[in-house]
Specification:
Blueprint lengths: L2 E6 L4 H12 L6 E8 L2 E8 L2 H11 L5 E7 L14 E2 L5 E6 L5 H10 L10 H11 L4 H9 L6 E7 L6 E6 L4 E4 L4 E4 L11 E4 L4 E6 L2 E6 L10 E2 L15 H7 L1 H9 L3 E2 L4 E2 L8 H5 L3 E6 L1 H18 L3 E5 H4 L10 E7 L5 H12 L3 E6 L5 H5 L2 E4 L12 H10 L4 H5 L1 H10 L1 H11 L4 E6 L3 H16 L2 E6 L16 E6 L5 H13 L3 E7 L11 E5 L7 H19 L18
Parallel strand pairs: 17-18, 17-19, 19-20, 20-21, 22-23, 22-24, 24-25, 25-26
Antiparallel strand pairs: 1-4, 1-10, 2-3, 2-4, 5-6, 6-7, 7-8, 8-12, 9-10, 9-11, 11-14, 12-13, 15-16
Helix pairs in contact: 3-4, 4-5, 7-13, 7-15, 9-13, 9-17, 15-19, 16-19, 17-19
The structure holds 6-O-phosphono-alpha-D-glucopyranose.
The site of 6-O-phosphono-alpha-D-glucopyranose has 16 residues, from helix 9.
């Protein structure tokens, strides 16, 4: 959801900013821009479309300068046009601002600023910040930024530069992430570490209401009330290789194929097979505190919500504790009941999703103990939760989440120690059959509707399979509990409706076979995900994709993989932009 990058040092900033934008492109990709300070003053160049369009523009005009900021946008206020692209400037063309977030009181601020004579040229909320800083600017940029931000409500991660106070970038955050990379006499400011890692693994994470001033001499951190804060320099354990495609056509495919390894990483050091238990050092809870839990609320968005749903089934079945799974965007506004004994688990790959973060803060405000299940180390949710589990799936760049899902489920399933160990090898076996999925994808790529049906542990998988298809191939797909089909969706079934059944041999197997018959009777086309060795299912389905047998509660870790591949190959067949599907962003840091 918008990516920001800034550079100050001795090198030409333009290629560094463009490279940083490319790394952040997964956060938004509808328009982009740069602002550079050099001998000519402030140079701003922007373009609607992907970063390649901006790159073409810069190749022509070749602005140079050792200090600059840049932005890739996911539109919230104002269409994705060149004019609305960031950075935004003030009336005098002195100040340039790149912003990630939403300024909630921008209408009031804009009206007041217009009355005071400021001229606005865009439809964005961000332009208000540029004019507000202009209003308070008396020669020192950080003072003006601090004064301006004290009038702003909403969320922001910003990077600001000014022609009349050159040699520095001012960054500030409230609700949207911002990280500073520390190298020798050069500093990079970015929305996340993927834009920094090429330069350094030494980083400083800003917290809410903090500001940073970057100059070639160093960085200085304060609050927006201008009190100095000293920050810890942290070491990031990612390397560049992990954020490259490594020969795969898309990040999504690479991440699907990485699942055996990402799961091994999730489980490493946590399985105590001899004792049949697991170790989760980061929970920060004593055995007595764990035993005192009377209720669990899992809150998340998107794919993480589906992982949370499987967590609900697992925890209820194995620990016999009541669990509710709440969409974070709903939970935070519905006056949630959180008695003593309730533990809230926030599940988020990025650890930055605005709704999940807000839900977690709301739970904390009400006194609940909050745990995080996150992938990105150092992310806001990870830092603000009282404890939790890092899934260690490694960077996930494809907008459609795949390996994070299986690692989240594995983290929530750590109760099933022994069986979990076998999962990575079993996924490898499924991946070896990817060509069969590709052939089915080719046959069905032109259909415009799909239904995904499953029961029990496979119901959230049906939802996730449908979500993957919608996200990357723009085909309408619905996930339903298989038994619920007869209460509505069955009306949709005819010979043009492919139905994906997740029909593994668990307790609901026979029932799902009956549902399959109901679809066959209406001439629907059936693609079944079934347990290895189940020949009976082949007599009912048009196509069968087999997965190895596994303990029922762990089925989702296997059954989701052919569905990820199916969505991927259908999207490729339809020539869709798999890693950057339209209208989406990987990390949604606005409400
Ligand atoms: C966005 C992404 C989804 C993701 C969701 C939650 O909508 O496009 O793929 O599942 O955010 O993200 P999180 O980082 O909190 O897991």
């Amino acid at each position: 959801m918008c990516g920001i990058v800034g550079y100050v040092g001795s090198q030409d900033s333009v290629p560094i900013l463009l490279e940083g934008l490319r790394r952040l492109e997964y956060r938004g990709y509808d328009s982009a821009g740069v602002a550079i300070l050099n001998g000519q003053g402030l140079v701003v160049q922007k373009a609607a479309g992907k970063i390649a369009v901006l790159e073409g523009l810069l190749n022509g005009s070749k602005p140079r300068g050792t200090l600059g900021i840049a932005h890739t946008r996911w539109a919230t206020h104002g269409e994705p046009t060149t004019v609305n692209a960031h950075p935004h400037v003030d009336c005098k063309g002195n100040i340039a601002v790149a912003h990630n977030g939403i300024i909630e009181n921008y209408v009031t601020l804009r009206k007041k600023l217009e009355e005071e004579g400021h001229r606005f040229t865009t439809d964005t909320d961000t332009e208000t910040i540029a004019h507000l800083i202009e209003k308070y600017f008396e020669g020192n940029l950080e003072r003006a930024v601090a004064a301006a931000l004290r009038h702003v409500t909403g969320t922001y991660g910003i990077a600001v530069i000014a022609r009349d106070d050159p040699g520095k970038i001012v960054g500030a955050r409230h609700g949207s992430p911002l990280v500073v990379g520390i190298c020798d006499s050069e500093y990079v400011l970015a929305s996340d570490v993927s834009a920094i890692i090429r330069h350094t693994n030494q980083v400083v994470y800003l917290d809410d209401e903090e500001m940073v001033v970057l100059t070639p001499q160093g960085i200085h951190t304060t609050t927006i009330r201008e009190e100095t804060v000293s920050k810890r320099v942290e070491t990031v354990d990612w390397d560049l290789e992990k954020i490259e495609k490594a020969g795969y056509a898309h990040f999504m495919l690479k991440e699907i194929f990485e699942q055996p390894q990402s799961l091994r990483n999730t489980l490493r050091g946590r399985l105590l097979a001899e004792e049949g238990t697991s170790r989760l050092g980061g929970l920060n809870m004593s055995p007595a505190e764990l035993r005192a839990i009377t209720r669990v609320v899992i809150t998340a968005c998107g794919t993480s919500w589906h992982a949370g749903m499987i967590g609900e089934y697992l925890i209820e079945e194995l620990a016999r504790i009541p669990v509710e799974v709440e969409y974070a965007s709903e939970f935070r506004y519905r006056n949630p009941i959180l008695e003593p004994g309730t533990v809230v688990i926030a599940v988020s790959q990025s650890g930055e999703t605005a709704d999940t973060l807000a839900a977690m803060r709301e739970a904390k405000r009400r006194g609940a103990r909050v745990l995080g299940v996150c992938n990105v180390v150092g992310s806001t949710i990870a830092r603000e939760s009282g404890g939790g589990v890092y899934i260690h799936a490694g960077p996930e760049i494809g907008v459609a989440s795949t390996k994070a899902f299986t690692s989240q489920v594995a983290a929530l399933a750590l109760e099933l120690t022994r069986e979990l160990e076998s999962i990575p090898d079993k996924i490898e076996r499924i991946l070896a059959g990817a060509d069969k999925v590709k052939a089915i994808a080719r046959a069905y790529a032109r259909h415009n509707n799909f239904l995904y049906l499953g029961r029990g542990y496979n119901f959230p998988v049906a939802l996730e399979g449908a979500l993957k298809l919608k996200e990357i191939s723009y085909i309408h797909a619905e996930g339903y509990p298989a038994a619920e089909m007869k209460h509505g969706p069955i009306a949709l079934i005819d010979e043009n409706m492919p139905v994906v059944f997740i029909c593994t041999q668990d307790s609901a197997y026979e029932k799902v076979l009956n549902n399959m018959e109901e679809v066959r009777a209406r001439r629907g086309k059936i693609i079944a995900i079934a347990s290895e060795g189940d020949e009976h299912v082949a007599t009912k389905a048009d196509h069968v994709l087999y997965i190895p047998r596994v303990l029922g509660p762990l089925t989702p870790l296997l059954s989701v993989v052919p569905l990820q591949l199916l969505a991927y190959y259908i999207a490729v067949e339809r020539k869709c932009d798999v890693d950057q599907p339209r209208n989406l962003a990987k990390s949604v840091t606005v409400e």
